[in-house]
Amino acid sequence: MSVKNNQDSYSTMPPETAKRFKYWQTRVIITTMIGYAMFYFVRKNLSIAMPAMQADLGITKAELGIFLTLHGLVYGVSKFANGFIGDRVNARYFMVTGLVLAAFCNIAFGFSSAVLMFGIVWIMNGWFQGMGFPPCARLLTHWIPPKELATKMSVWNTSHSIGAGLVVIITGYVVSLGWRWCFFVPSAIALAGAAFLWFTLRDTPSSVGLPEITSDNKNHKEEGDSKSLEFKQFVRKKVFLNPYIWIIAIANFFVYTVRYAVLDWGPTLLSEWKGVSIHHAGWMVAGFEISGIIGMLLAGWATDKFFGGRGARVAVICMALAAFFIFLFWQIDASPALMAGILMAAGFSIYGPQALVGIAVANLATKRAAATAIGFTGLFGYASTIVSGWGLGMIADNLGWNYAIGVLIILGITGTLVFALAWKAKADGYDD
After folding, report:
1. Which domain holds residue 180?
2. Residue 417 CB contacts under 8 Å (≥ 6 apart), including other chains
3. CB 101 within 8 A of CB 43
4. Residue 203 in 3-state DSSP?
5. Is 214 inside any structural domain?
6. Percentage of the chain modeled with pLDDT above 70
7. How far apart are CA 14 and CA 29, in angstroms?
8. Which candidate, 135, 193, 175, places its Cα nearest to that of 53?
9. Contact in structure between 108 and 341 (CB atoms under 8 Å)
10. 178, 292 contact by CB (below 8 A)
11. What single string gives the DSSP state of each residue in 360-420?
12. What is the dihedral of CA 129, 130, 135, 140, to 10 degrees?
């Protein structure tokens, strides 16, 4: 039987083993969803705090944008570097360590008052945040067969929206106690989440006495020899010399620019440009995230059901819709309810590509180099903070939000065109 056929089915396992495998698969998916959502609690809490920090400390949008940009750039590099590590180490230890250190950075941020200290601590937080996704990528590609990855990883990807949505709601309330509580409260929740991960998460199937998804002897040898020169050559071929991974990675720059522009600047934009209270702005940004959950699930299901696992094709459609809804938000001066509805439609659209980028490159790189491939796309995704952070902050300071949103629409259209270049990409790289 071929490697791919073994990986696409549980049929080679005895019934009792298959039942136990599926139990652990579900447990790993749910546990890592909760754990990764906790990373967002100590990453996206800054957006609600920013208007109060401007008023209390006299910090400009451009300075806040620099925090966002430096954090994002360091996070992208960390996600890439830790992708190499994440493919080789115990995911449980790695993920818990990153979450604990990120929470401590947030506590330090909450006690700070100097702009320089804010920058240093938030950059450190960016590095530790990069320890969150690589272990998840390792686990998901070891526990989920390729033919199910788009659907099940889309379910997992809702952790982004769950974490980001919950933290803007929670901080939208606690900011009334002072902006520092936007860092103390999420940190406490994240530390509790780290304890939960420690006691519930495990590593790959073999760590709990279960067979790996493939029974091919060659692949078992490859797994055990991941530190060799051969592994580096494998990664070079599957990731760095794969033109479709490059195209999808570049497209990811535009996905994250649109997504983070709303997530980071949404509360400030809505309060300053649209006159929405910070409390209601938090709920509106949460609506953007909640609708993104539906968008991710539908995009993953459609990828497996109608597009044969070719996520780039679905991403083209979703990205075009995201640009369209941002255009509507830009042009229509409407009631808060209608604005919230348009933002939700944009969130529904942009989170499809956000989820599918990781799924597409994980399948193309195969489970053996999945964390590296996803880390590589993360370099481009978080480089977007140059535009979504500092860039939009500068434009808003000097020209106003009207121009900033216009730039965002152009970037959304460009991302659509880049995704279209990967239309012919295969569903996965297991046959190569």
Report:
1. 12-203+230-420
2. none
3. no
4. coil
5. no
6. 93
7. 22
8. 175
9. no
10. no
11. HHHHHH-GGGHHHHHHHHHHHHHHTHIIIIIIHHHHHHHT-HHHHHHHHHHHHHHHHHHHH
12. 90
Single-letter amino acid code for the residue at 86? G
Q: ∠329-332-336 over CA atoms, to 5°?
A: 75
| pLDDT single digits (tens) 141-172 | 888 887 787 788 888 988 988 998 899 889 98
210 domain-assigned:
no
Q: Give the whole-angstrom CA distance, residue 417 versus residue 193.
A: 39
The secondary structure element, H or E, covering residue 187 is helix 181-200
> pTM (2 decimals)?
0.72
Letter for the amino acid at 354? Q
Q: Flag whether pLDDT at 125 surpasses 50.
A: yes
Torsion 6-83-37-200 (CA) sign:
positive
Cα gap 93→432, rounded to integer Å: 33
C-alpha span between 118 and 111 (Å, rounded): 10
DSSP string, 273-312: TS---HHHHHHHHHHHHHHHHHHHHHHHHHHHHHSTT-HH
56-65, 190-199, 239-248: least confident range: 56-65
Average pLDDT, the chain: 85
CATH assignment at residue 193: 1.20.1250.20
d(CA 397, CA 275): 17
- Split into its structural domains, the chain has a count of 1
Tell me, yes or no, whether 65 lies in a domain.
Answer: yes
Token couple for 167:
């933290």
Determine the Cα–Cα distance for residues 191 and 183; give it in Å rounded to an integer: 12
* CA 168 to each of CA 106, 150, 217, 327: distance values in angstroms, whole numbers, following the listed order: 15, 28, 48, 24
Q: How confident is the model over 11-32, as pLDDT tens digits? A: 677 888 888 999 999 999 999 9
The predicted-structure confidence for 368-393, as pLDDT tens digits, reads as follows: 787 788 878 878 988 888 888 888 88
Q: Which letter, b or e, does each residue of 229-243 get, where b requires 16 or more Cβ atoms within 10 Å of its Cβ?
A: eebeebbeebbeebe
Distance, in Å, from the CA atom of 72 to the CA atom of 385, rounded to the nearest integer, reads 6
- How many residues in the chain? 432
Distance between CA atoms of residues 116 and 101, nearest Å: 20
Residue at token pair 């990828």: 303
Cα within 13 Å of Cα(416), Cβ side: 16
Residue 138 domain-assigned (yes or no): yes
